[in-house]
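Recall from the previous lesson that a structure prediction takes nothing but the amino acid sequence as input. Here we apply that procedure to GTP cyclohydrolase 1 from Sphingomonas insulae. The sequence below is the only information supplied.
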Amino acid sequence: MTDQHGSPDDGDLIEPMAPAAVPQDVTDAIRTLIRWAGDDPMREGLVDTPRRVAKAWKEYCAGYEDDPARHLERVFEEVGGYDEIVLLKDIPFQSHCEHHMAPIIGKAHIAYLPKDHVVGISKLARVLHGFARRLQVQERLTAEVADCIWDNLKPQGVAVVIEASHACMTARGVRTPGVGMVTSRMMGVFRDDERSRKEVLALMGC
Ligand SMILES: Nc1nc2c(ncn2[C@@H]2O[C@H](COP(=O)(O)OP(=O)(O)OP(=O)(O)O)[C@@H](O)[C@H]2O)c(=O)[nH]1
Ligand SMILES: [Zn+2]
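The prediction returns the following C-alpha cells.
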C-alpha cells in the first residue's frame, strides 16, 4: 500500500535490500573488520555475514531515506473542540550512537498542545523513528523530533522527553550497565509557562 506521496505506508521505511544491491566495497569493508577483530571471514559461519551486516545497517539507518515531516502533512480539524494536551507515552525506539555506532535503546514521550488541528497519533511515532534510524546523539534526536513537530504542526507547545540506554556505555568503555540518559526539549507554552510544563511532565510520569 502506498500513501498519497507514493511512499511505503506499511510501517517499513524502506524495502529490504536484495542481495545483489549490497555493493562489493561494503562487504569487503565488513570482511576486513571481521579479520581485524580476530576471526576468519571465510570460515563457513561468517561467509554470509558481510552481506547480512550490510543489510542490517541499511535497516538501522533507514531514516536517511525518510523525510519525517511528511508524516505530519495530514491533519484533522474536527475533534470536538479538544484543546488540551495530546501525549504519546512510552514509545520504544532504537537508534545508534554516532561515536561508536553502538545501539541506543530507549523510550520517548512526545506531547503537544494543539492550536487549530491534531495529527494522527501514529505519526508522532513515525517522526521519532525517522530521526532515530540514523547515526545520532540523543540530544540531537530529541531536538530534531521536537523541532519537526513544532515547525510542521504549528501547535501551541511541544514537549519531548527521551530516556535511553547507550550500549557504548554498557557493553564497552566505562561498562556501566543500568544507567539511563534523559533529555528533553520544551517549546512554546511548555517552555514559557511553568504550570503547563509541570502538567505535561506529570502526564509523562517524569
Ligand atoms: N552527549 C552524548 N554523548 C554520547 C552519546 N552517545 C555516546 N556518547 C558519548 O560520546 C563520548 C565519546 O567520547 P570519546 O572520548 O571521543 O570516545 P571514547 O574514547 O570511546 O570514550 P569512552 O566511551 O569514555 O570510552 C563518550 O563519552 C560517550 O559516552 C549521546 O547521545 N550524547
Ligand atoms: Zn557511543
